Automatic annotation (TrEMBL):
UniProt-recorded name of the protein: Methylamine utilization protein MauG
GO molecular function list: cytochrome-c peroxidase activity; electron transfer activity; heme binding; metal ion binding
Pfam family, one: CCP_MauG
UniProt cross-references to SUPFAM superfamilies, sorted A to Z: Cytochrome c
GO CC list: periplasmic space
Co-factor note (free text): Binds 2 heme groups.
Naturally occurring in which organism (per UniProt): Pukyongiella litopenaei
Location(s) in or outside the cell: Periplasm
Cofactor: heme
Key words, A-Z: Heme, Iron, Metal-binding, Oxidoreductase, Periplasm, Signal
């Protein structure tokens, strides 16, 4: 069980950020296996060339990556982007990097925290989504506030509760004062660091984090009848039939990113707002794997920042109809990326399936496609088997490439 509220001090005490280790199981991830870079057969040397080739060749089950015409990929940009991604010096006090919310060994999420934590333990109200296959997301963020990876990084860079820089220009000046970055920017762009070049490098690296070829892909697109278990096949029949999941997570004839990249009110955001306005008397707090205590809520609030309302897409458009609408996430590799929903309050896939099976909370304005399904426990088992079959085999190599050089934890 995870903390579903952004408690600043307590979250740091009971859910420390991932500090290392690449084998075994992740206690905070409900016993899920860690993504182990050691299981990747590739040598770490020459990873940039492999990453470039991967981003240029369509992966099984996925469409070609849409590279912008003004930012063609190169090995130099990928190498520079990775260094920027891991560099804590890009935060105001040298403590925070992109990789601290998007941990390679955890499929580029952070399983320890329901919602992200920024500089000095400042709470962020949303869950950090995976970056695997982020190349296919347009728009970006849970509320769609940005449309391009080239500019997406600016928000976290200057957000007071994330990397907390006073300005993006100050970061660029800091980078240009570092000799190692001069060499990398010259190799990638034949020019010094600038805000647009920094965005191009980060975007190119993130577009190389692509993974297809799941058991589902080998079965559905590759014609291998042995690739998918019978429960998973039954689960797909429900997914694409009676459960109606493909209405928002479509499966195309040649490829599937398993999101419509649109915004929907599932009732979940409204439901969580009711909890925010009417908090419980106590809240469960995990203090160690398998050890959970019920703690008086007033005591928690005495060391916490107030929880903010989250109106979803409305915060971008200020259109009343957009209240509590959030972007549909992709379901690829979903079994590896708990916790779930925009605020990370659902810890397991089963909890997500049960929410949708119940038809959501019946909120005002809820999308009519969210309706009671009446599925049996065995139906939910089959749906879960199908979701597990969406895991790609190449993620360990993405983590190995990410860790092929020591991170910049200066």
């Amino acid at each position: 069980m995870r903390i579903g509220w952004p408690f600043v001090v307590l979250a740091l005490a009971v859910c420390p950020a991932w500090a290392g280790g690449t084998t075994g199981h992740d206690p905070a991830g409900g016993g899920l296996p860690l993504v182990d870079p050691a299981t990747c057969p590739e040598d770490a040397a020459g990873w940039e060339a492999r990453a470039l080739a991967r981003s240029l060749a369509p992966q099984p089950g996925l469409p070609p990556i849409p590279h912008p015409a003004d930012n063609p990929p190169s090995a130099g940009k990928i190498a520079l982007g990775r260094k920027l991604f891991f560099d804590r010096r890009l935060s105001i006090n040298g403590t925070m990097s992109c990789a601290m919310c998007h941990v390679p060994e955890q499929a580029f999420v952070n399983r320890e925290l329901a919602t992200a934590v920024g500089v000095e333990g400042r709470s962020v109200k949303r869950n950090a989504p995976t970056l695997i296959n982020v190349a296919f997301h347009d728009p970006l963020f849970h509320d769609g506030r940005d449309n391009a990876l080239e500019t997406q990084f600016i928000g976290p860079l200057v957000a007071r509760n994330e990397m907390a820089n006073p300005s993006a220009g100050r970061v660029i000046a800091r980078i240009n004062a570092m000799p190692e970055y001069r060499r990398l920017f010259d190799a990638a762009f034949a020019a010094p660091a600038s805000l647009d070049r920094m965005g191009m490098a980060l975007a190119t690296y993130q577009r190389s984090l692509v993974a297809g070829g799941s058991d589902f892909d080998r079965w559905y697109y590759g014609g291998d009848e042995t690739a998918l278990t019978e429960p998973a096949k039954r689960g797909f029949a429900l997914f694409s039939g009676a459960a109606g999941c493909t209405a928002c997570h479509p499966v195309g004839a040649d490829s599937a990113i398993l999101t419509d990249n649109l915004f929907h009110d599932t009732g979940y955001g409204w439901m969580r707002e009711q909890v925010r306005q009417h908090p419980p008397a106590t809240a469960p707090v995990q203090v160690a794997p398998g050890v959970v205590h019920e703690v008086d809520f007033a005591r928690i609030m005495s060391v916490s920042a107030p929880r903010e309302a989250d109106l979803g897409r409305y915060e971008v458009t200020e259109t009343p109809a957009d209240r509590w609408r959030f972007r549909t996430p992709s379901l690829r590799n979903v079994a590896l990326t708990p916790p779930y929903m925009h605020d990370g309050a659902l810890a397991s896939l089963r909890a997500v399936l049960e929410f949708y099976d119940a038809g959501g909370p019946g909120a005002p304005g809820q999308d009519p496609r969210i309706r009671p399904l009446g599925l049996s426990p065995s139906d939910l088992d089959d749906l879960e088997a199908f979701l597990n079959a969406l895991t790609s085999p190449g993620i360990a190599c993405l983590a190995k490439e990410a860790r092929s050089a020591p991170p910049d934890n200066h």
